[in-house]
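Shipment paperwork, digital attachment
Item: protein structure file
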Amino acid sequence: MTTEQELQVLFNQLDRDQDGKVSINELFLSPGLSAVIAAETKTTSPRELLAQYDLDEDGSITFEELKEAVEKANNLSY
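Attachment content:
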């Protein structure tokens, strides 16, 4: 389980170009962090994460999309 603040820190680390989105490339460039995301969202790969939670289908995950994925997996603590 993770808090929203911890999730934001993790997201910021993944968002290497600081554009407010985490692309598939950024997920693959950080395999350790991606493994944490996979565990928190109960997905098996960056591609599965994007397929399930990239709501606007732009090929990347925003913080809100990631937060929703973690909430759906019941791994967000308040």
